[in-house]
Amino acid sequence: MLTKISSVDECTRQGSDNTAYIDDEPTRPDPTETPTVFCASSEDLVRSNTAECVGPLKRSWDRTKVLVTLCILGTEMCERLAFYSVSANMVLFGTSTLGLDTVDATSISLAFSALANLFSVVGGYISDSWLGRFRTILFSGILNVVAMLLIQCAAIDLNDWFEKDLTQVGKRVVYLVGLFLLTVGTGGIKANISPFGAEQLDSLGKEAVQSFFNWFYWVINIGALVAYAGVAYLQQNVSFTWGLFLPLVVTLLQIVLFVLPRNMYTRTRPAGSVLVVALKIYRQGCCRRPPHPDPKLPAGSERKLFARAKTSFGGSFNDATVEGLADVISVLPFCLLVIMYYAIYSQTTSSFFVQSERLDVRFGSVKVPAAMLNTIGNISIIILIPVIDRLFYPCMKKIGLPLTYLKRIGAGMILSVVAVVIAGVVEIYRKDVMNQPGGSHVQVLANENFTASSMSVFVQVPQFAIVGASEIFTSVTCLEFAYTQAPASLQGLLTGLFLAAWGIGNLVSMAILLVVERATILDPWYGDEINHVKMENLMFLLAGLMAANFVIFCGVALRFSYKETAPNLNSAENKDKIEHQIEETFHKPLEL
After folding, report:
1. Are residues 137 and 114 part of one domain?
2. 30 and 71 fall within a common domain
3. SS3 letters for 197-234?
4. What is the pLDDT of residues 60-101, one digit of tens each?
5. Which chain regions cross the lipid bilayer (predicted)?
6. What is the C-alpha separation between 491 and 326, in angstroms, rounded?
């Protein structure tokens, strides 16, 4: 049973046995009862009128925290390894096994990545509203197992068992259904695994949470590295049957790792339909005027509008709930402004990959998988994250120039511009070499012939490495930004929105490719055979669009105000202040 607490000390004592307290079913609190304080994190003590003591509130690492953190990181590594094993050679699988042309296979690859991220919004909403993060991640993992089985069926030759194989159309249908189920399961995991992991370390403070997100992204790239370097090689040089069997095994391992410490997790109880509450607050804010103005709020801001729904202004919703919604609304413009960044990032598995197929993939007597070039970005991330987390960020803070979330995101955008400009220059020189005597040859990749330049595929190393470096500043920071700027009841949804921006970026990239292909039909910039088009112009166009997006981003960022970070419960000077705020909370009616 959960009990009400009246002080920070009591809240701390309730978690001393390392047991996670949670109701099995989400329930709506009775507004006539005195609200309790959910002390899943120190930040929630200040920013929420309702909280639940759902786990240990310890101040230092112990075995429990180490175990749950390692299991969560291991779960994410396995999930990403399996996902990238499917996506790494998706274009090649489509053209060699399913009989698709390059444009259609590329479109499927982009749509797959887009849907996986778009479903993150659904996964975040379901978690925050009904299932909770643990069950959403678990059910999504089970769905991924089913998806991997279908994808495997599309890759294997059923004649070995049933003396009759699927037709090519049948294989396409089974494969696409498997991909769709995988996007749904991936969306449920992606929206919740990072905030669920950060939730386990919330009581250790802001620096521990920031470090978690950096290392979280580090293990993502370990999984991607194994997928692109190992599994992609197996798919290209042995068979897709074995190359798609491994991700099935890894997906099963992912579930085992996640449920292993199931009784040790700190869990936040779902809060009911957060979107319904948000719509009610918005409607009340629009339809009524506060009895007295708030001089602290600028006229016309979303906080001024939402203030009309606060109990302190005669509204029906407690102040913390309204402020939490205002915090999320203020972050939404940045969800839109990172879309173009992800459109650039998606080139690593589309136009960059097509470019790789037409470069010399030989390294001595070994054929390097075209998809392996993505490992350059992964390796740069694996090397740079410890350096940035342990040296660069602390040094910048020490000299009085700390990098805020938005500065980091902006730095990643600039790097993405540099990457596509380099890709355009590489494309120019690639075709110049092909026009020279002996400058081209025919190479076979997965039983498909490509006319390739004699220029080594390793000339792409700079563009992939710079995209990888940009991820550290933009992608990692977006996850941390979403977690720190949202109330606990909306963290999954806001994380899902940032991941949805990733998915929309893939759709934008696909739309740009289709529009460019049709608009430049007389002097093509992109097509099924890039040896006969001016793909460098496409790269320079993307760089220009990203540069324009960055200018808009800077304008919006200059007007943004960060949500105040909650005081640390370890600080004696803040303890009385926090207890006073908790005491005030008990005298406010709870409204949902």
Report:
1. yes
2. no
3. HHHHCHHHCHHHHHHHHHHHHHHHHHHHHHHHHHHHHH
4. 557 788 889 999 999 999 999 999 999 888 888 888 888 888
5. 106-126, 138-158, 173-191, 212-234, 240-260, 325-344, 368-388, 409-429, 493-516, 537-560
6. 13
Within-domain flag for 277: no
**578 and 552 together in one domain:** no
Token pair for residue 93?
């699988």
Claim to verify: residue 17 and residue 137 sit in the same structural domain: no
Mean pLDDT for the chain overall? 79
Q: Is-contact 591 318, C-beta < 8 A?
A: yes
* CATH classification of the domain holding 200: 1.20.1250.20
How many other β-carbons are positioned within 10 Å of the β-carbon of residue 167? 9
Six-digit token pair at 492?
């999954």
Both 217 and 246 in one domain: the answer is: yes
C-alpha 565/C-alpha 212 separation (Å) is 17
Ranking 21-25, 35-39, 246-250, 339-343 by mean pLDDT, the lowest is: 35-39
Q: Tell me which H or E stretch contains 589.
A: none
Residue 450 domain boundaries: 63-268+338-557
Residue 255 reports pLDDT greater than 80: yes
DSSP 310: B
| Cα separation values, 379 from 120, 382, 384, 440, 464, Å | 26, 5, 8, 29, 10
Total domains present in the chain: 2
- pTM of the predicted model, to two decimals? 0.71
Could you tell me if 75 and 53 lie in one domain? no
Measured distance CA(472)–CA(386) in Å, rounded: 11
Contacts by 176-181 with C-beta closer than 8 Å and gap 24+?
176/108, 177/150, 178/147, 178/148, 178/149, 178/150, 178/151, 178/153, 178/154, 179/86, 179/108, 179/112, 179/147, 179/151, 180/115, 180/147, 181/143, 181/144, 181/146, 181/147, 181/150
* Cα–Cα distance measured from residue 492 to residue 497, given in angstroms and rounded to the nearest whole number: 9
pLDDT (tens digit per residue) in 124-157? 888 888 888 999 999 999 999 999 999 998 888 7
280 assigned to some structural domain: no
Q: Is residue 306 part of a domain?
A: no
Convert 398-456 into a string of H (helix), E (strand) and C (coil). HCCCCCCHHHHHHHHHHHHHHHHHHHHHHHHHHHHHHCCCCCEEEEEECCEEEEEECCE
What sign has the CA pseudo-torsion 14, 20, 23, 28? positive
253 touches 41 (CB < 8 A): no
Beta strands 440-445 and 362-363 are: unpaired
- Residue 91: inside a domain: yes
Same domain, 174 and 243: yes
